[in-house]
Amino acid sequence: MFSSVCFVLAVVLFANSAYSSYQFHQLGNALPLDVQLEAGAACLLALIGGLLAVPRASIKHDIVSGHAVPGYRQEPLKYIYMDKATSELEAQGVGLFEELINRPGYLDLDKKRKEFAKWAKQ
Prior knowledge:
Low-confidence stretches: none
Mean pLDDT: 82
Radius of gyration: 28 Å
Pfam family, one: MMgT
Membrane topology: Multi-pass membrane protein
InterPro entries: MMgT
Signal peptide: 1-20
Family: Belongs to the membrane magnesium transporter (TC 1.A.67) family.
């Protein structure tokens, strides 16, 4: 609730500072300090509203076992078990460093030429 109020107030302040800066720009004057402070306050309110809108994670995991500690409830995000994630990728034939290994800078061109020459002779 409070985060929504912060967002609405931030939008109103942004709109007012944008309109004020447009008017001062039309007159050719420099932007006054109060308009700059108003835009800064709007940024700060938007940041506070965004931080308050994020649900608080109440998940605690044991570092050694990776299991959730009893007494804490699960929130929208789930824990990523790297051993399962890497085994699923390796089962698909993709290693952890596949992108690095197959970059053009890591290709052995002499080996590729020999393989192509051997293939061409067949």
